[in-house]
Design a protein that fits this description.
This protein has 347 residues and is α/β, with parallel strands linked by helices. Helices cover 37% and strands 17% of the residues. It has a single domain, classed as Alpha-Beta Barrel (TIM Barrel), CATH 3.20.20. Strands 3-5-6-7-8-9 form a six-stranded parallel sheet. A three-stranded mixed sheet has the order 1-2-4. The longest helix has 24 residues. The protein binds zinc ion. Zinc ion (ZN) binds next to loops. This is 5-methyltetrahydropteroyltriglutamate--homocysteine methyltransferase.
Length: 347
């Protein structure tokens, strides 16, 4: 376990082909009942093992027990009707069939506690757990009850906070909220987005993180990115607000993106998970590619606050591609560790 430049993945990893369709995002399960329960647990063990083998420092469950990063959480809540679906535009970008909020939302029991305990039992390294952020949750629903994005986000923030506290008690070291919606809805972001996120993270002693990206490497996102011009400056809206917030860590997309790297300066003082692996391209980065990204970024983030990572989840990639990308990430970080220790004669 490296304490300098600890590596991690954003969240999801590909699922084994006996559990879900390969290289397919949000694929239905191939098993059911007790076989599914056991299959998910086996997949979680494999995901941990693959991260260990690759040399990743902070271990995730690879999101092996969820079909979708938002709806799997929402499925466990009361007040949401999954039969009564509506088609809505997600992230202002693509249409999807989503569940409807029909009454007051509530969490009757833990959603991920058993899975987090299973992860904790399988590694002695620090672990990270991902949850959807409040704004991204409301953007993946049709709301017939509250009829206020802000009010519903606040209710979800309270529910997320209950869940996060249980995960923390189970030994989760980093709790990460995924908020790709922060790169799209800038008025909401300023008015209540960061406040709702802080509410979700309130009172946690674990490290709290927010992941903001340009999405999985799917067609709708690739096409959207093509419209964003030569410089992607969306982070300029969220980073100053997050720098002032109670959130400890920010996870961002960097390698192969058009994000001007100097925007990371806006986060100075926070921990930064930098995407040094492209998840939209099956080509494997070399360790030197990873090191090159990290060297650039180190001009804008203190070395003791840098966490080399992937741009987003790797669920849609082939398993071997994800393994090789994790190995490259770990090897690239090692190049920079050696450079940093060589530059400090006292160590
Ligand atoms: Zn992402």
């Amino acid at each position: 376990m490296n304490t300098l430049l600890p590596t991690t993945v954003v969240g999801s990893l590909p699922k084994p082909s006996w559990l879900a369709e390969s290289e397919t995002l949000w694929s239905p399960w191939k098993l059911d009942g007790e076989e599914l329960r056991e299959g998910k647990r086996d997949a979680l063990s494999l995901a941990v093992d693959e991260q260990h083998q690759a040399g990743i420092d902070i271990i995730s469950d690879g999101e092996q027990t969820r079909q979708h990063f938002v709806t799997t959480f929402i499925e466990h809540l009361s007040g949401v009707d999954f039969e009564h679906r509506r088609t809505v535009r997600i992230r202002d970008r693509y249409d999807a069939s989503v569940p409807t909020v029909v009454g007051a939302v509530g969490r009757e029991r833990s959603v991920f506690l058993d899975d987090a305990r299973a992860l904790r039992a399988r590694t002695s390294q620090p672990i990270k757990w991902t949850l959807p952020g409040p704004m991204t949750m409301i953007d993946t629903l049709y709301d017939e009850h509250y009829r206020s994005r802000e009010e519903l986000a606040w209710e979800f923030a309270k529910i997320l906070n209950q869940e996060a506290k249980e995960l923390e008690a189970a030994g989760v070291d980093i709790i990460q909220f995924d908020e790709p919606a922060f790169n799209v809805f800038f008025d909401d972001l300023k008015e209540w987005g960061v406040a709702a996120l802080e509410r979700a993270a309130e009172g946690l002693r674990s490290t709290t993180a927010v992941h903001i990206c340009y999405g999985y490497g799917i067609k709708a996102n690739t096409e959207w990115k093509a419209t964003l011009g030569s410089e992607w400056r969306q982070y300029e809206m969220s980073f100053p607000l997050l720098q002032q917030s109670t959130i400890d860590m920010v996870s961002l997309e960097c390698h192969n993106s058009r994000v001007p790297v100097e925007l990371i300066e806006l986060l100075r003082g926070k921990k930064v998970m930098v995407g040094a692996i492209d998840v939209a391209d099956g080509a494997i980065e070399t360790p030197e590619d990873v090191a090159g990204t990290l060297r650039q970024v180190l001009r804008f983030v203190d070395a003791d606050k840098l966490y080399p990572s992937t741009n987003c989840g790797m669920a849609p990639l082939a398993r071997q591609v994800a393994r090789d990308k994790m190995t490259a990430l770990a090897a690239g970080a090692e190049i920079i560790r050696a450079e940093l220790s060589g530059a400090a004669p006292s160590t």
